[in-house]
Backbone:
């Protein structure tokens, strides 16, 4: 093969379908059923981590009632592709709107996530007239799996940090023929989106984030040195400061992932270890997930199957460790102001790990075109509150359409 | 235990050439291979049992099987 043909092959966009062999699903159930559990925690709350009674119920449901084929069919009902960018295969879904003037939008998930988190927003964003919106609100949606996540390739060398992912996404959008596009993200997807906005490629129209980097430098500095909230802060800012200070003390799994992701062998070997690790994310979502499994209490639009879809995807692709590596890759601060000057929209959900005040958001995003505090929803907003989330994305980009 | 060690599903190799990301894959695989094939718990058990071992309840703590 000539060198040119090699390059063309690498940059080709290859259709992709999810088709997990039945033997792998049988083996997953076998491993869940064979789980050796530890003793019950000696406390009556989440303070020692994901609780035994909940994990036993999750394992029971996962091994006996859960059906992976349903989400596999949902994934395959969308066009899926692979393309090699910067030496790594990137998986993505690409759903074009029937509306010609739709705005191209790349949406990035976080940890512990995958494009499964975005399945429910695809139709509201691409087909808004069927969901209470107008044709002028339509998006062409691109949903990639981050490097090391889901069906994307796993980096074999260091360097795939959120900034590199942001550059890869710009290349992906250009490869799809989009010369102007917008970007959206929460959790790590918010970092990727913020960093893309900081890189400010000429193709980027603007961003929408539901996990913003907004803490002013002096606040970020005070946080990192563990000081109490500066006296100059307003009540709302003080609340955000205290939420961030709490997080600095309560991110046990994240600390491990940022230090020694390779030591997490159990995530590759035990489905229950993987599930517990992925559910140990934040206090609010944990509380909801436990009540969902143990009492059947609703958690927005999230079902038990949704939760297990995401975990099962991670198990089947063996990405527990490769996805954790993103934490060791990222060297920046966690809530800092990125000094972004491209147009930006910020949605603040009440159960997110912190609520970025408008005052900080206006400083962090000099062209803040939309800021809204919602009355419900949390860290997994697109997944929990797809209708509200889609309305926020539409509202956020409305003023940026040409 | 040997069955579980032999049935281990492994992650990929670390993306670095040192222990900075934790216990390296080659190390863990070598340990697992020896553990499943060469290691003999009974030797350690015999050493423990060669000494007088006793149990008593203190402050309510009981050993449960």
Residues:
């Amino acid at each position: 093969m000539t060198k040119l043909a090699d390059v063309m092959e690498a940059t080709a966009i290859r259709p992709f379908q999810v088709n997990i062999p039945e033997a792998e699903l049988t083996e997953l159930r076998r491993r869940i059923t064979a789980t050796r559990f530890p003793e019950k925690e000696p406390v009556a709350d989440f303070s020692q981590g994901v609780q035994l009674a909940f994990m036993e119920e999750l394992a029971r449901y996962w091994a006996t009632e859960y059906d992976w084929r349903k989400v596999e069919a949902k994934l395959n009902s969308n066009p899926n592709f692979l393309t090699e960018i910067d030496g790594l295969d990137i998986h993505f879904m690409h759903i074009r709107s029937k509306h010609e003037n739709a705005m191209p939008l790349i949406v990035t998930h976080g940890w512990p996530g995958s494009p499964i988190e975005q399945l429910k927003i695809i139709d509201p964003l691409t087909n808004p007239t069927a969901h209470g919106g107008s044709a002028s609100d339509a998006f062409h949606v691109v949903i990639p799996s981050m490097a090391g996540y889901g069906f994307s390739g796993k980096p074999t060398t260091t360097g795939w940090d959120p900034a590199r992912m942001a550059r890869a996404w710009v290349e992906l959008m250009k490869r799809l023929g989009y010369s102007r596009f917008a970007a959206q993200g929460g959790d790590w997807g918010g970092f990727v989106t913020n960093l893309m906005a900081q890189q400010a490629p000429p193709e980027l129209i603007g961003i929408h984030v539901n996990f913003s980097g907004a803490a002013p430098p002096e606040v970020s500095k005070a946080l990192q040195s563990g000081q109490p909230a500066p006296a100059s802060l307003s009540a709302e800012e003080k609340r955000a400061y205290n939420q961030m200070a709490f997080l600095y003390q309560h991110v046990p799994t994240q600390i491990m992932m940022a230090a020694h992701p390779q030591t997490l062998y159990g995530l590759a070997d035990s489905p229950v270890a993987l599930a517990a690790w992925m559910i140990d994310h934040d206090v609010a979502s944990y509380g909801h997930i436990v009540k969902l499994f143990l009492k059947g209490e609703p958690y927005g639009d999230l079902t038990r199957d949704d939760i297990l879809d995401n975990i099962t995807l991670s198990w089947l692709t063996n990405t527990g460790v490769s996805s954790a590596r993103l934490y060791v890759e990222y060297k920046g601060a966690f809530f800092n102001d990125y000094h972004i000057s491209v147009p930006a929209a910020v949605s603040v959900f009440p159960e997110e790990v912190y609520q970025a005040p408008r005052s900080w958001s206006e400083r962090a995003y000099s062209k803040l075109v939309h800021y809204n505090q919602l009355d419900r929803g949390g860290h997994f907003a697109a997944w929990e509150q797809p209708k509200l989330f889609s309305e926020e994305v539409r509202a956020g980009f409305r003023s940026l359409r040409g | 235990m040997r069955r579980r060690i032999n049935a281990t599903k492994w992650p990929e190799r670390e993306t670095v050439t040192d222990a900075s990301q934790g216990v390296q894959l080659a190390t863990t695989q070598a340990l697992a291979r020896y553990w499943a094939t060469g290691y003999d718990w009974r030797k350690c058990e015999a050493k423990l049992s060669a000494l007088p071992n006793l149990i008593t309840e203190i402050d309510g703590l009981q050993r449960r099987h």
